[in-house]
Amino acid sequence: DGGITQSPKYLFRKEGQNVTLSCEQNLNHDAMYWYRQDPGQGLRLIYYSQIVNDFQKGDIAEGYSVSREKKESFPLTVTSAQKNPTAFYLCASGSGGYTFGSGTRLTVV
Amino acid sequence: RKEVEQDPGPFNVPEGATVAFNCTYSNSASQSFFWYRQDCRKEPKLLMSVYSSGNEDGRFTAQLNRASQYISLLIRDSKLSDSATYLCVGLTGTASKLTFGTGTRLQVTL
Question: Tell me: the pLDDT tens digits for A41-65?
Fold first, then answer.
């Protein structure tokens, strides 16, 4: 079945550590997106990519980095520069009606 | 001002009731709109697109009023399984970026 797979489901990060969240899709979508969701807030766009080897900053890109070396994959790195990384991270692909992955819950310990 | 604004609720309604959610948007350049449903601690899932002519999918009816920059979702004959957060979403720009409202929480009770 086609879909988006995010891993891991839960991730714990120590202060000062970089972590990478995986996002893989087999829907043959060109566009992929990373969102962050905090309690009581809507989804906020971190980065997006419309084509391989190209990506753009979203509204809250500071402290994050991405790559898009393959159409299927759009990993997100949460760097130590991100001061408040605890959140629910969602990857999506498509245009218009997105398909979302099941998300990664990142907690700083 | 947020681009997409929703009443956060919660809306507590009995099973079988009709409930309506409203949403306003500030960016008149927004091209398309959607309603997503999000269950607790899960990812959002597309519920339906919203058209100016209005569209219906079973018990769900969505409507867009571009003049008033207003979007609505009507749920008839509410079921317990409709309990979720409903996200109003606008599409803007050539990059197909979606802007999400904070969501309206619905709780359907017996």
Answer: 889 999 999 999 999 999 999 999 9
B66 contacts B52 by C-beta, under 8 angstroms: yes
B53 touches chain A (CB under 8 A): no
Q: Which amino acid is at A99?
A: T
Task: Choose the closest CB to B100 out of A43, A88, A101.
Answer: A43
CA-CA-CA-CA torsion sign (B41, B81, B49, A5): positive
* Spatial contact of A101 and A8, defined as CB atoms under 8 Å apart: no
Q: Sign of the CA dihedral A74, A77, A81, A87?
A: positive
- The pLDDT tens digits for B63-90 are 999 999 999 999 999 999 999 999 999 9
The edge-to-edge listing of strands for the beta sheet with B4-6 is: B4-6, B19-25, B70-75, B60-65, B55-57
The length of chain B is 110
